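Supplementary Text 2. Reproducibility record for the structural model of the 112-residue chain.

All settings were left at their defaults, and a single model was retained for analysis rather than an ensemble. We include the record here because the model underlies the residue-level annotations in Supplementary Table 4.
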Amino acid sequence: MGTVEGKQLSFIDRFLTLWIFLAMAVGVLMGYYTPAVTGFIAGLQIGTTSVPIAIGLILMMYPPLARVKYEEMGKVLQHKKLLVMSLLQNWVIGPVVMFVLAIIFCAAIRNT
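Retained model, structure tokens:
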């Protein structure tokens, strides 16, 4: 194969799978050897939402979302019809469809 041009992955990105498995192993070992930690983390819930998991997901999703090319906003705003359709699909149609699907699946599960 030829050489790959462009940026090389950073040290963290290159070994991301390793870091994930190490974090999982640390979590399992902490839960096994220190049960108090498990109780503490379980106490960090609001309703059925785990606050540490919610924070972790936000921290994980922020970097890709923050890479918006704001200098390109002028080009986007020139296409008003495309912008309106995108906003309509993402903020109105998508949530309505997901809500309806949730009702359908919950009703199907309840009737089984």
